[in-house]
Amino acid sequence: MKKLLFQFDTDFHPSVFDTVVGYDGGADHVIGYGGLTPDTIKPLVEGAIFTRPPKDKKNTAIFVGGSNMQAGQQLFAAVQSHFFPGFQVSVMLDSNGSNTTAAAAVAKLASSGVLQGKKAVVLAGTGPVGQRAAVMLALEGAQVSITGRNLAKTNDACDLMKARFGVDLTAVEAFDHAARADAIADAQIVIAAGAAGVELLSEQHWRDNAALEMIADANATPPLGIGGTDMMDKGVARHCKIIWGAIGFGALKLALHRACVAKLFEDNKLVLDAENIFALAKLMA
User: Fold this and answer.
1) H or E stretch at 103
2) What is the spatial order of strands in the sheet that 241-244 belongs to?
3) Which domain holds residue 263?
4) Do both 122 and 231 map to the same domain?
5) Distance (Å, rounded) from C-alpha 229 to C-alpha 226?
6) Residue pLDDT, tens place only, 120-163
7) Model pTM?
């Protein structure tokens, strides 16, 4: 029986990246639908849950993606709201690669040093990857702040993560390099999660920071998010800090994404979100 992965995307065009990894993860067919909302999802979910007998439902799965984390969370919840005993399929959330990218970055940091009790700052942390990285750091026992150019938007992101995961995050307004340098002044861990090709810190703003122990930069498009690092860095020591670049932990991100897709077809009751995706990442790191 064919393994069918239905790609439910909140953007108009379903992500090509997610389609490719869906196939690489073991799906026989990936069927993408774009522009979906909680109000339009019901007939698609019913088509997935009613068509195969119980023993074969594990061969159908749903992947929720898109560029907007809040919209993805809402769609993810809406999909599950149409399940009932005996009629459900496995489902995964990874809006904009948020869960798998964040999980890979934080897992690599955890493999390089201690996270518990440390002060961590996620630069440009209001986006999908930044939000989930902040959550995972907090779940590991770090004291986490996220920066953003707009304090109200940054507070909203913290509130969303508090509501979903029960973690306390601190919002910091930081609209330029100097403000972000101030935000990391006493931090031991920094993750850059900004838009592609946008530098958030130059090398001079972090190299002499004696408190700083570890850095991860999720940006692989020059200029990098943190100047003076390299996208290929794999736990490299530079200025007495351990550095992970986007390609450096990107191999784990891709392997994790593929592994999660493969798991969707092992059972019809799996719900893959930040917590269990991160747990798998730590085993694979």
Assistant:
1) helix 98-112
2) 169-173, 143-148, 119-123, 189-192, 214-217, 241-244, 234-238
3) 4-97+252-284
4) yes
5) 6
6) 999 999 999 999 999 999 999 999 999 999 999 999 999 999 99
7) 0.95
